[in-house]
Amino acid sequence: MSDEDTYVGSAAAQALGEMGEKAASNELITALLNAMHGKDENVRWNAWNALVEMSKKAATDEVISALLNAMRIDDKYIRRQATNALGKMGEKAATNEAITTLLNAMCDEDEDVRWWACEALRDIGEKAATNEVTTALLNAVLNENTHIRMAAAEALGEMGEKAATNEVITALINAMLDGDRNVECRLVKVLRNMGENAAANEVIIALLNAMDANDPYVREAATEALGKMGEKAATNEMITALLNAIRVNDENVRQAATEALGKMGEKAATNEV
DSSP secondary structure string, 68-82? Predict the structure, then answer.
């Protein structure tokens, strides 16, 4: 990639990207980092793409530091790629500096950078579940466009029970009422992933309402969410709703309802069941 012919340098970077993690030696990673500061735009772009593909194996302190610096520069395209690459490192990128930088990226002027920041926090998962992160993701669920709202909701879901605070649960329930089918389905799955910590009465009521939704995917997700809550969700109203769900036409909903009842143990052992 030090070749004076920019086309050769660009092709070399692209080839390394196609090789992915297999090419992620220290020497090649250093070469990619150097190429990112070159004069030719195509070489820089292909070097970034190559590092994105290698990033899972390339999660060294040097690479993480380079990506964090890149997330602060003026070029929005490089900020996008740097945020993407950081997310691909998953838990390996769960440093305090990285999480702080991702939080700042959620306020970026570029919509795609904000989306990639949510995706990166999702990939890092529970290790990113600080109060500041859950608050920022919650604000994104409530205030952003659909594209980013869904990414933020999925990130909260990957943080599981650590994100299952009363504030988060209440806000997610309220967000389910805005009529956006895609967001509603994602939010139901988020509550499901939060597990038993989300088994508050308000959540159970919201999921029971979701079981009456017109969309079969929302109904199925709500039924699965109730099942994951186990015995804590085994109210009379909920058991009745699951019994009704067993009789619907949708096979996936019937199966989810049957499995949900099975997870509720003795509390679901009524004559009707």
Answer: HHHTTSS-HHHHHHH
Percent over 90 (pLDDT), the chain = 18
* Tens-place pLDDT, residues 211-220: 777 777 777 7
Convert the pLDDT of each residue in 29-63 to its tens digit.
Answer: 667 777 777 777 887 777 777 777 777 666 778 77
Which run of H or of E encompasses 167? helix 166-175
Compute the distance between CA of residue 135 and CA of residue 114 in angstroms, rounded to an integer: 15
Residues 86 and 101: their CA atoms lie apart, in Å, by: 10
Amino acid at 106: M
What would the two tokens of residue 78 be?
Answer: 């490089």
Instruction: Give me 103's structure tokens.
Output: 């939080």
The per-residue DSSP string of 102-126 comes to: HHHHTT-SSHHHHHHHHHHHHHHGG
Between CA 11 and CA 170 the distance in angstroms is 51
DSSP 234: -
Amino acid letter, 227: G
Question: Distances from the Cα of 53 to the Cαs of 42, 62, 66, in angstroms?
Answer: 17, 17, 15
Contact call for residues 166 and 198 (beta carbons, < 8 A): no
DSSP state, residue 178: S
Q: How many residues does the chain have?
A: 273
Tokens of 5: 């012919």
Cα dihedral sign for 71, 142, 119, 78?
negative
Q: How far is CA 173 from CA 105, 121, 186, in A?
A: 26, 22, 12
The closest of 92, 156, 169, 104 to 130, measured between CA atoms, is: 156
